[in-house]
């Protein structure tokens, strides 16, 4: 899906709880869009969880501190994706296969399933694992790896989709 010149894209990033991977992906993607001067191409960039575990909470401190270490601001409160969001977003980008299956269950209109993607689809040269693994139960190294993944995937998305 290459962008129509006049259409602004709406992009959502999704993980399970919306406190680690997806808010990091949202922040990194938005920062990359801004630094590349591409803000006019997007109507909104948000993130969600498939579960309601953390609604209203700030991102995990390790996720926020990793982003801030690289000058990427994070301003987010966890929210849960709902069926109506599939009409609002052009891309619903998830972190792993479990999120993918959960999204298909949440989206009642199967014709909108084509909006669901793994973020790793934008790994054009096999540089990283295509799955953005959940770093929650590990150390800071997992968050660092996730940051590098989502930064690279964001850059590749912008090259391919705009």
Percent of residues in β-strands: 5-15%
CATH architecture: 3-Layer(aba) Sandwich
Please provide the count of β strands.
4
The largest sheet has its strands arranged as 2-1-3-4
End-to-end distance, in Å? 9 Å
CATH class: Alpha Beta
Parts with pLDDT < 50 across at least 5 consecutive residues? none
**Class of secondary structure makeup:** alpha/beta
Helix content: 25-40%
Briefly say what this structure is.
The chain is an alpha/beta fold. Helix content is 37%, strand content 14%.
Explained architecture:
By secondary structure, the protein is of the alpha/beta class. It has one domain: 3-Layer(aba) Sandwich (Rossmann fold). Helices cover 37% and strands 14% of the residues. The chain has five helices and four strands. Strands 2-1-3-4 form a four-stranded parallel sheet, sandwiched between helices. Helix 1 links the parallel strand 1 (9-15) and strand 2 (42-49). Helix 2 (61-69) crosses helix 5 (140-161).
Ordered list of secondary-structure elements with their pairings:
Blueprint: E1 9-15, H1 21-35, E2 42-49, H2 61-69, H3 85-88, E3 91-94, H4 97-106, E4 116-118, H5 140-161
Parallel strand pairs: 1-2, 1-3, 3-4
Characteristics:
Rossmann fold, 5 helices, single chain, four-stranded parallel beta sheet, 162 residues, alpha/beta
């Amino acid at each position: 899906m290459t962008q129509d010149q006049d259409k602004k894209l709406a992009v959502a990033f999704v993980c399970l709880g919306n406190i680690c991977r997806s808010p990091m992906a949202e922040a990194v993607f938005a920062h990359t869009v801004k630094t590349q001067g591409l803000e006019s191409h997007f109507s909104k960039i948000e993130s969600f969880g498939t579960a309601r575990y953390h609604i209203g909470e700030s991102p995990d401190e390790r996720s926020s501190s990793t982003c801030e270490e690289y000058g990427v601001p994070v301003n987010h409160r966890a929210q849960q994706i709902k069926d109506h969001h599939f009409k609002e977003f052009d891309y619903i980008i998830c972190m792993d296969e479990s999120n993918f299956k959960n999204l298909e269950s949440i989206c009642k209109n199967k014709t909108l399933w084509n909006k669901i993607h793994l973020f790793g689809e934008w790994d054009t040269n096999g540089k990283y694992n295509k799955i953005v693994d959940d770093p929650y139960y590990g150390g800071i190294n997992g968050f660092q790896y996730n940051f590098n993944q989502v930064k690279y995937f964001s850059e590749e998305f912008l090259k391919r989709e705009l």
